[in-house]
Amino acid sequence: MHYALCLALFLVGLYGVMVKRNLIKIVISLVILESAVNMFIIMIGYRKDGIAPIMSKMMDPEVFASRSVDPIPQALVLTAIVIGLGVTAMTVALAMRLYEKYGTYDIKEIRNLKG
Amino acid sequence: MQIIPLFVAIPLGAAFFIPMVGRKNPRLSDTLANITTLALFLMALSVIGKATQVYWMGGWVPRLGIPVGINLVLDGVSIFMLVTITLISFLVTIYSIHYMDKFTSKARFYSLFLLMVAGMNGVALTGDLFNLYVFLEITSIASYALVAFGGQHEELEASFKYVVLGCVASTLVLLGIAITYAMTGSLNMAQVSTIIGGNFKPIHLFTMALFISGFGLKAALVPFHAWLPDAHPSAPAPISAMLSGVVIKTIGIYALVRVMLNVFGMTPLTSYILLVLGTISMVVGVLLCMGQDDIKRFLAYSSISQIGYIVLGFGLGTRLGIAAALFHLINHAVFKSLLFLNSGAVEYATGTRDFSKLGGLKDKMPVTTTTAVIGSMSIAGVPPLSGFWSKLFIIVACVQAERYGFAAWAAGVSVLTLAAYLRMLKRTFYGQPGEAQPAAREVPMSMKLSMVALAALCVVMGMLWMPHAQRTFLIPAARVLQEGLTYASSVLGM
Prior knowledge:
- By secondary structure, chain A is mainly alpha-helical.
- Helix content of chain A is 69%, strand content 0%.
- Chain A has a single domain (10-48, 66-115), classed as Helix Hairpins.
- Chain A has helices at residues 2-19, 23-44, 61-67, 71-102.
- In chain A, helix 1 packs antiparallel against helix 2 (23-44) and helix 2 runs antiparallel to helix 4 (71-102).
- Chain A is elongated, with a radius of gyration of 20 Å.
- By secondary structure, chain B is mostly helical.
- Chain B has a two-stranded antiparallel ribbon.
- In chain B, helix 2 (26-46) packs antiparallel against helix 3 and helix 4 (106-125) runs parallel beside helix 10 (237-264).
- The radius of gyration of chain B is 21 Å and the shape is globular.
- The two termini of chain B are 25 Å apart.
């Protein structure tokens, strides 16, 4: 169920990237796409009724290992979010410069190149 | 002192340092950037022929044979890629000294450039799947910004297109890495490959499809090539040379074959997919390139075609095929950078890239013309230049693997490439003088220097197939890829 929703989000993002004509909407679709993948990674490490992966001295390592959620995906997602932020900032800056040059956000009207 | 992490740390540090000190003084940033790339090149030369070394970041060595930290692996292929990357980036920074004078904020240019080099060196060295993704994104973000460096209409448009497709590609790669982690519980390439160990489940095929489309988009293989002919010509010429010469090879092809051959292991299916993708790229690329009227777009389409040759060689999966593909990879890096630098020189001298306005430049620009002829003949496969040998060995490898159809396509495309390049030379350097011809003059010293160096390399690179060079440089690289899953035991020391 959760994975299906995640896939749905991914497809929404992919649809937006391919179909939308507005530059800003394309950027938003890219963010949705990234979020879908990030959520997927988080769900890989999820465990029902799990505890946070922080071990204190009182805990028994074996009990801790059997109850905590997997910390690696969380670390990965933190990195992926930071990278995503960098790309989004870059893309928004490009979209703004394009608007300055062309006076429109519509990709159908920004067509100097043949493709 | 460990040399392995320095390949990433030096350019990263210089990328941070140059804009701080070089903002007021462009000559100082020139000097620093050139010293950095020269140092990297010398370091890469110094590790040729060394045995496999593994560096565990932060001293997190494996416990009981299970890796816990991130590792950098310096093996045959990594050394090969490092030499290619640093050689081209050194010659390109020399060229940039004069070429980039017409742009403002040179220090930022070098900063982004070195960031890109740091990312590529990281991709070549890393032994960890997620770390591969991080370095991939460093390279990509720097190259998005560099494509838009001119800040004009076309640059911005091309860069936006590149960002959107590049972003989708990275997302696919990340999804593939996530699924790999879910299957195996590890991100270390060596450990993942011992766990998968060549036995396939349907989910592996899905992951491989994600990797092939993700890295295929980055490498601009044919169904995924739409961004390349816009992005590469729009960048400043030194960056076009880097993008076509090494970036698509490192973050596209190298990453793809590393994951396919060393982590998942070669299967008949992957081999066939690579062969078909390579052949389609080869044929479509050369056909599209014949109709272009812009010299840089022409070269960009030709890159797609040559990338096809490299993928075809890897797809064969034999020792000879892989060695020939690597050989063509480094040759293509040299002659395609040379040709892009030539096109930059033409644009520098005349202010246009359009065939209809060019022509008859051979008397005004003798050095550019001579080097462009050498580069074109090399890419078209005229003996005894380097391109001839690598294409010949790819075709021989096809025949040896009994893939006669693919060998015929490779030979046919080679003829078409020759025709396309003869047309380019005639329209630009020979033939009737165009309207841009009278104002043209030869380019400054630094640009000539790097073009002549690359042209000289085109002539002598065929020597890499001589027994001694082959044994120390090409064969160790090919062996790592061909022996596939033994990669794991050499990294983990088991």
